Amino acid sequence: xxxxxxxxxxxxxxxxxxxxxxxxxxxxxxxxxxxxxxxxxxxxxxxxxxxxxxxxxxxxxxxxxxxxxxxxxxxxxxxxxxxxxxxxxxxxxxxxxxxxxxxxxxxxxxxxxxxxxxxxxxxxxxxxxxxxxxxxxxxxxxxxxxxxxxxxxxxxxxxxxxxxxxxxxxxxxxxxxxxxxxx
Length: 183
Ligand code: AMP
Hints:
Blueprint: E1 2-6, H1 13-24, E2 27-30, H2 31-41, H3 44-55, H4 61-72, E3 81-84, H5 90-102, E4 109-114, H6 117-127, H7 134-148, H8 151-157, E5 161-165, H9 170-182
Parallel strand pairs: 1-3, 1-4, 2-3, 4-5
Helix pairs in contact: 1-9, 2-3, 4-5, 6-7
The chain binds adenosine monophosphate (AMP).
Adenosine monophosphate (AMP) binds next to α2 and α3.
């Protein structure tokens, strides 16, 4: 099973992806976490990603694709995976289709977690990651609206998009996601 968890920064993709991966027994790939780890280890990819992540911009598509391609080739991805924070652009969505096609797979569901902007900003300010400063948060939301949100139409037209209301407890939202995955 290949699931994409979709939504603006701060809607809870990371938290939900972790729980779902555990419950469904599949791998979890967070491109954001992969970049944070690469930045911390100062790997070549980390050195490139650093300036984009710090400013809340998007890491270039070719760099992102490299990270995803490597992860998908890993043996723990054979049973399926939850993609969290990828794809974020139309080019990434197309690259993903090609990669999955080569593995004989396709996306089963794109789950959009829907949360209003005011709640998102409040949540991110509370989380306090280094890219959770107010100016950077606003930029990340603008980038999401300009580059990433249009993918909702793309996946909607493929008939694999489902949406869940993302305000509530972690357990409530998780149950909503499991319900839409079973439907
Ligand atoms: P996240 O942990 O998903 O909030 O991602 C944190 C940061 O990593 C983002 O603000 C981007 O700078 C970068 N990033 C993560 N995933 C992607 C992606 N698919 N494309 C481009 N940049 C990304």
